[in-house]
Design goal:
Shape: globular
Order of helices and strands: HEHHEHHHH
Strand order of the largest sheet: 1-2
Number of helices: 7
Radius of gyration: 15 Å
Largest sheet: 2 strands, antiparallel
Number of strands: 2
Helix content: 55-70%
């Protein structure tokens, strides 16, 4: 992917350099897989959305951590997907829209879950899971 762009984001403070950890990576991937599987069960749409969003964030963070970076900003984690796993612009837009909806729910109490967004989020998160699973895991430092 593109280390140059990630380095640039680190220079302006959007990312922090931090050595990757195999145990952390494996844990994030396992937790994301569990959340993604649960998001596809017959649950309340709000719960499904929360689980799918959490899985997407963990996968995106695992990909970023694999490259030796961390971000305290959730949206930055999603924005780096184009550079860490080559996520398409269309899928990235779904993750960004889901992030905005998550913020509305978290900070303003919004409870209406758009069924199409939920379906798109689950679909895109499945694609992301395949992409992250195909990466070579980090080696222990």
């Amino acid at each position: 992917m593109s280390k140059k762009e990630l380095d640039s984001l680190a220079k302006i403070g959007r990312l922090k350099e931090e050595s990757p950890s195999r145990a952390e990576y494996d844990g994030m991937l396992a937790a994301a897989r569990t959340s993604l599987a649960d998001a596809q069960k017959d649950l309340d749409p709000d719960s499904q959305f929360t689980l799918a969003y959490g899985a997407a964030h963990r996968l995106a963070l695992a990909a970023l951590r694999r490259e030796g970076y961390r971000s305290e900003n959730r949206i930055s984690v999603f924005q780096t997907l184009a550079h860490t796993v080559g996520t398409s612009a269309a899928d990235l837009q779904v993750f960004l829209k889901a992030h905005n909806e998550r913020n509305l729910a978290e900070y303003q109490g919004r409870q209406d879950v758009d069924a199409q967004l939920l379906a798109d989020l689950i679909r895109c998160t499945k694609t992301l899971e395949v992409a992250v699973a195909a990466l070579t895991p980090p080696t222990e430092e």
